[in-house]
Structures are given as C-alpha cells and as structure tokens.
Amino acid sequence: MKNIKRCDWPGADELMLKYHDEEWGTPVHDDRKWFEYITLDAFQAGLSWSIVLKKRENFRAAFENFEPETIAKYDETKYTELTQDAGIIRNRAKIKATITNARAFLKIQEEYGTFDKFIWQLFDNQPIVNEWKGTSEIPASTPDSDRLSKELIARGFKFVGTTICYAFMQGAGIVNDHLVSCFRYKELTAA
C-alpha cells in the first residue's frame, strides 16, 4: 500500500502506518478494546503516540490484556510490580489511574450493560465525521471532548482531560478525523 493517499501524521514508521491503516478512526464496539484505548491514551499524555504504540504488547501483557475486571482487583503488590516493569511507561500516577479507571469502567458496565452502550449514546450512536483538508485543521480538543471529559471525571475516571479524550475519540472512531484525501476517510464514511 505504498502509493496510496493517507494522512501524513504516521510518517514512514511501519507500526504507525499499520495503526493508521487498520485501527485509527474505526468505530469500536468491544468493551475490552474501549478500556485498552482509554488506558493507552492516558499513558500517552505528555508523550508521543509512537512511544505508546511500540510498548503496546508490553502493556497488554502487564495489564492482563486490558481486562477491567482483573485490573480493578489489583492491590499494592501488583501496583508496585507495575511501577518496576521496564516494558511499560512506569508513571506511578498513570498506573494508579488505570486501576481507578478499571473500577469506574465496571460501574458504567453495571449501569448500562456495556461501556459501548454508554459511550455511543453520548454521541447519538454515530461517529462524528469531519472534513479536514490538512492536518493543521485538526483540533486538539472540541466541545464534545470537553463534555466527555467532564462526564468521565464525574464518574471517577483519572487522566481523562479534554485533549486525552479527543485522542481517545479519534482512535476509537467516535470521530473520523482522517483527511478527506486519505483512503481511510472514504472507507470509513462508506461503512
């Protein structure tokens, strides 16, 4: 897929290209995947997505494939173990937030049946489709990400500021921010 038109942000990095071409902007409907995205976006805060993506498999191993039921039960021993795991980003506050977020995630599942049902109803059950012509047009946050951030914070989540929420929305397909010239834009709007 060398001579196709795509967004420019992945650059030439094979892992970033694969993520762009196969995942970014594709609507998510799997609760485990939702929890993975919200966790990885929190760990990305202050870093590049490329760093997080390169450590993704290590994160999956360290956090039991992002199973919120398991993570919600982590104790001080497991927390300490994670802070010493060189395969992940060893930010103590972000590790603590992941455990807190797992518990908040489970409460939403209890209330709504699934996190998927909860999150999509906030956006009228359909992706927001933008029509950006250049990367410089894409915002870091929007009133929708402000609203999502407030909703998640009110439900006990940590590391869910508006910029993190917007990245989460982009990755999980709540918003289609592929450039209109990108082959994925056409694929996702046709779907």
Could you walk me through the main structural features you see in this protein, from its secondary elements to its overall organization?
- By secondary structure, the protein is mostly helical.
- The protein has one domain: Hypothetical protein, domain 2 (Endonuclease III, domain 1, Orthogonal Bundle).
- 55% of the residues lie in helices and 2% in strands.
- The protein contains eleven helices and two strands.
- The protein has helices at 14-22, 31-44, 49-54, 56-62, 68-71, 76-83, 92-112, 115-121, 143-154, 162-171, 183-190, and strands at 128-129, 175-176.
- It has a two-stranded parallel sheet.
- Helix 2 crosses helix 10.
- The longest helix is centred in the middle third of the chain and has 21 residues, at 92-112.
- The two termini are 20 Å apart.
- The mean pLDDT is 96.
Protein traits:
191 residues, mainly alpha, Endonuclease III, domain 1, 2 strands, 2% strand
Q: Provide the low-confidence segments as ranges.
A: none
Mean pLDDT score:
96
Please give the domain count: 1
Q: Widest sheet: strand order?
A: 1-2
Query: Could you say what the CATH architecture is?
Result: Orthogonal Bundle
As for the CATH topology, it is Endonuclease III, domain 1
